[in-house]
Design goal:
With 437 residues, the protein is α/β, with parallel strands linked by helices. The chain contains 15 helices and 15 strands. It has helices spanning 16-21, 47-50, 59-71, 83-95, 109-126, 147-152, 178-181, 197-205, 231-242, 264-268, 295-301, 321-336, 339-355, 386-397, 419-434; strands spanning 26-30, 33-36, 41-44, 100-106, 134-138, 169-172, 210-215, 245-249, 274-277, 289-294, 363-369, 372-377, 400-401, 403-405, 408-411. Helix 4 runs parallel beside helix 12 and helix 13 packs parallel to helix 15 (419-434).
């Protein structure tokens, strides 16, 4: 029986009272579609929550999870191991660029961010640079909801209720520049110079105090902000100049979203010292995250007495056997179906489709890269976010699931989408936009 009492579940990132008045309930999923409670087939335009890159209910992943839970339902990874954890880590490391060869498992993108931040501080301390404790994030950045993540993150609504955050954190300016870059196709032309703000921050605080810079290669949760041409390479150069670790948060961009490669780092030709990832690592089926470290980071920890714990950090469910099985099967599915390559091939068609909405009522900007796009709407006077929410809600009632952040609609479908479904997606979104006040 469907639940009639919606009070017990305190929903995350949700206007709970508003939801209870007109619930949006999903009861099943397959391939590109959800089934709503009333039986409506809902085209998944945001891969669940940026995570179902291979589509829903894929047989290989389902079977792997079923087998794993029936064989080894749990195994600790504190001073113990199991084969699936080592296999999953090896598979992920082989997908990561350059010498990002060491995978530390956790359970979410939030935990991956906090893991990477702790790793960065400990790395410098072991090297004798104990003064390096400062982090540099970016305005409008999103790195999960742990205290570390919201401290280096730059979305004000995620921070304002929670006090002073971690000390010793500064922020780069965001890269959203609609005056110069509105309706850009792919990477915006203007904005490389925004990376030079890091030089000013370094001068302000002294480079010997800074442990790491953390950014999303493409800022996703804030409304899809692809990096300006040359911006990430400039950040890498400045970090190298001052001995600062560079962390890429690839929770959204990882596992094919940018098209052609597993990670945005390889797509953009910039190698960070640590990559955080989650979401597509298991196709969203079982919670899992990871921090992937380069050789020099890992080897710094492998010193001192052999019997000593090198990195006193971890989670009960780090490398959970069922999550590892799901990850291995997910990576098999990506490879066997060529989904990263498929995303790259579809990207130009997707780009044309999202930009076809230019000129519709209230559309003030469109952004895209790979198989992700955003349509930014003009905010209503005195009521920001209401127009975006209305479009999101009406689209769902019409059989289309989108992601909304403020007045920006994010589109990030499973990589199995076809051209007819791309046409359907933007046809439905266009119809709702034409009929929105």
């Amino acid at each position: 029986m469907p639940p009639t009492n919606h009070d017990a579940f305190w929903m995350p990132f949700t206007a709970n009272r508003q939801f209870r008045k007109t619930p949006r309930m999903l009861v099943a999923a397959k391939d590109m579609h959800y089934t709503a409670e009333d039986g409506t087939q809902v085209l998944d335009g945001c891969a669940g929550l940026w995570c179902v890159n291979a589509g829903h209910n894929r047989p290989k992943i389902t079977e792997a999870v079923q087998k794993a839970i029936a064989t080894l339902d749990f195994a600790p990874t504190f001073q113990m191991g199991h084969p699936l954890a080592f296999e999953a880590a090896d598979r992920i490391a082989k997908l990561a660029p350059a010498d990002l060869n060491h995978v530390f498992f956790c359970n979410s993108g939030s935990e991956a961010a906090d893991t990477a931040l702790k790793m960065a501080i400990a790395y410098h301390r072991i090297r004798g640079d104990a003064a390096r404790t400062r982090f540099i994030g970016r305005e409008r950045g999103y790195h999960g909801v742990g205290f570390g993540g919201i401290s280096v993150g730059g979305i004000s609504g995620n921070r304002k209720l929670y006090g002073t955050m971690l000390g010793g954190v500064d922020h780069l300016p965001h890269t959203h520049d609609p005056a110069r870059n509105a309706f850009s196709r792919g990477l915006p032309t203007h904005g490389e110079e925004l990376a030079d703000a890091l030089e000013r921050i370094v001068a302000l605080h002294d480079p010997s105090t800074i442990a790491s810079v953390i950014v999303e290669p493409m800022a996703g949760s804030t409304g899809v902000l692809p990096p300006p041409v040359g911006y990430l390479k400039r950040l890498r150069e400045i970090c190298d100049k001052y001995g600062i670790l560079l962390i890429f948060d690839e929770v959204i961009t990882g596992f094919g979203r940018m098209g052609g490669t597993a990670f945005a780092a390889e797509k953009f030709g910039v190698t960070p010292d640590i990559i955080t990832c989650a979401k597509g690592i298991t196709n969203g089926t079982i919670p899992m995250g990871a921090a992937i470290a380069r050789d020099h980071v890992f080897e710094t920890f492998m010193q001192g007495p052999e019997a000593g714990i090198e990195f006193p950090h971890g989670y009960t469910y780090s490398g959970h056997p069922v999550a590892c099985a799901a990850s291995i099967a997910t990576l098999d599915t990506y490879a066997e179906e060529g989904l990263f390559e498929r995303a790259e091939e579809l990207a130009p068609y997707f780009e044309d489709a999202v930009h076809s909405l230019r000129g519709l009522p209230h559309v003030i900007d469109i952004r895209n890269i790979g198989l992700v796009g955003a349509v930014e709407l003009e905010a209503r006077t005195g009521a920001p976010g209401t127009r975006g929410y209305e479009v999101f809600d009406r689209a769902f009632r019409d059989g289309l699931l989108l992601r909304v952040t403020g007045d920006t609609l994010a589109i990030s479908p499973p990589l199995i989408i076809n051209k007819a479904q791309i046409d359907e997606l933007f046809g439905k979104l266009g119809a709702v936009l034409r009929d929105t006040e």
